[in-house]
Amino acid sequence: MLLPRHPRGSKLTERELLAQWTASPRGQALLNLESKELQRLLPDVFGRHVLQIGSWLGGTQLLSHAETLHRAVLGTVQGEGVGAVIEPGRLPLPEKSVDAVILPHTLEFNDSPHQVLREAARVLNDRGRLFLFGFSPWSLWALRRRLGGARNFATGARLYGAGRVSDWLQLLDFEIADLRRFGLGFPYLSPRSAGHPWSLANLLLPFTESYLLVARKRVLPVNLLGRTQRAQIRSLVGVAVPAAQRQGLDGGSESGS
C-alpha cells in the first residue's frame, strides 16, 4: 500500500520502501528494542503532554509506556495512530507546552534537522525532556547501505552521528543526560549507556547500529534580588550614639555639675 505524500514532505517512493522495511523482521526487531528503551524512561516523565514528532514504526507503540494525561503522534504522513500531519520544522504548538518530545529518526528524514531541534526546544517546557533515536553513520549496516546492500531501507535518509547531534543540542541549551547505543547486527552488544563500566567492548560502541540520546532543557537559575539596604555608618571608636540621646546626655551632665 502506498503512503500518501506529506504536503511538503519526503518522496513517495522512499516512504514506500520504509513501509516495506517496517514490516520486515529486522524492522520489527528494531521497534521492539526502541520500545524497551523508552519503557525504562517514559514512566519517569511527569506532566500532561508527551508527543512523538514524526512518523515511524508501530504507530503509537513508542508512546505506550507514557503515563502522562495526554500523548499523541504528530506524523509526517498519514498512518495508524497519527493524530495530525505536520511539518516537524513548524510545529502548530505554543511555547513551553509539552513535557516530553520523542523524535524517532525524525532528523534523518527531514531536510532541516537544525530547525526540527529548534522547534522541539521551543515547545518543551523548562522541565522538558527530549528522546531522540538515530542511526549511526559508522555502523556496518550503514556502510552496506552506502554500498547499495541495504536496498529495503529508504534511500533518502541522511544519518547523523550521536556526537554531532549532541553538539547541536548543547547549542540549544540542552544538557545530555544519557547516550544509549544498541543494534541488531555486529557488534552484538546489549544496550548500554556512555557511563557503563568500561571494557574492551566499549571500543565497538560507535559501530553499533542505533543510538538513543536523552536530553533535558538547561534552565538557568533565577536570583531574586531583594531591596537594596542603605549602608549603615559605623563608628570608628565605640558605639555611635544618636544626636537626640547626645543632647540628653549633655544636659544631664550640666544639671549635675
Automatic annotation (TrEMBL):
Q: Does the keyword Transferase apply?
A: yes
Q: Which Pfam families match?
A: Methyltransf_11
Query: Domain of life, per the record?
Result: Bacteria
Which GO biological process annotations does it have? methylation
Methyltransferase type domain sequence ranges: 90-132
Record keywords: Methyltransferase, Transferase
Q: Which Gene3D superfamilies match?
A: Vaccinia Virus protein VP39
Q: Recorded GO terms, molecular function?
A: S-adenosylmethionine-dependent methyltransferase activity
Q: What is this protein called?
A: Methyltransferase domain-containing protein
Q: SUPFAM superfamilies annotated for this entry?
A: S-adenosyl-L-methionine-dependent methyltransferases
Q: InterPro entries in the record, alphabetically?
A: Methyltransf_11, SAM-dependent_MTases_sf
